[in-house]
Amino acid sequence: KGPTDSSNFIQLPFNSDLSKLVYVLNRMLPPDVRVLAASPMPTVKSTSSLMSKYSIDAFHPTLYTQSKTYVYRFSIGNIQDPLQSRFVWHLDGSSGRAMGMNGNKFDLELAMQAAKLFVCTDARDYAAFGSVMRGNEKNRVRSTICTISGCDLSRENREQLPSWEQRQDIEGANDDFIERCGSRLNTAGAPIHPLGVEKGPQTFTVAIIGDRFMYKMVRNIVGTIVAVACGHNELEDIQQALSTGEWGNGPSGSRRICAPARGLKLVEVVYPDEVNFDWQSG
Fold first, then answer.
1. 93-102, 197-206, 256-265: which range is least confident on average?
2. CA-based diameter of the chain, in Å?
3. What is residue 180's three-state secondary structure?
4. Residue 143: predicted pLDDT
5. In terms of CB atoms within 10 Å, which end of the chain has fewer, N or C?
């Protein structure tokens, strides 16, 4: 079966030092973008099954991957950390795409149960969790069969967060800071942060590993996990969608939630052993 896109990759002539190219690129790129290493177009063993599977005799950066790992971050709490607002989806119910996703209703146990439902040891049809392509990609033929080997939800270590985010209702928490800045007590007798914050945001991470992903698939999965945890959807909705390939036939009858793009990042791409890179750093 041929590739599911019409991409063509041509090896361009380059006779210079790749480490020098890395150095030059890092001098020209904006400060928030960096190149760690560069490699000539990878060679693929002639006996590789990849060539026969996709009918391509040259390296393809998307189709030849063995696995990809995406990480999505979201937070709950009375207020959001403003320094993380561009990279973390805060569940405050104000987002137009996720009305009602209020962190005060968030059930961590339900969220973890929902995440486990997406894991499969064999390939499965995830048609209900892909979005329609747009623009030039709109009519592209795509497969909805994927293998998700991991979907783990964890709470980030609070020691990694700045002091103002840490809970003040824990005995001894930030005593020095409170003493210096002054504090008051809430009705339960617990100290309130000088800025009026009783509890800072809690940040969670969803790590999803799969052999391939459809357009917006990770965001749809995370949005569904959050929707279940906030009472918007039920676990049975996920099971029904996975078995039928369609959304909306479950007990809640609610629409699918697509998490905002800002919490998503691709953290790892793994290629099989028959794809050989020659990485050179600057």
1. 93-102
2. 72
3. helix
4. 86
5. N
Tokens of 207: 């790590």
Sequence-ordered alpha helix ranges (H) in 80-187: 108-116, 175-181
Tokens of 105: 């209703």
Burial class (CB in 10 A: 0-12, 13-18, 19+), 152: middle
Answer whether 12's CB lies under 8 Å from 18's CB.
no
Q: Give the residue from 271, 264, 223, 258 showing the smallest Cα distance to 68.
A: 271
pLDDT attached to residue 176: 54
Question: How many residues appear in the chain?
Answer: 282
pTM exceeding the 0.90 threshold for the entire prediction: no
CB burial class (10 A; 0-12, 13-18, 19+) of residue 162? exposed
**Six-digit token pair at 173?**
């928490």
Query: Please, are residues 195 and 174 in contact by the beta-carbon 8 Å criterion?
Result: no
Sorted by sequence, the CB contacts under 8 Å of residue 123 that are 6+ apart come out as: 145, 146, 147, 211
Burial of 44 (0-12, 13-18, 19+ CB in 10 A): buried
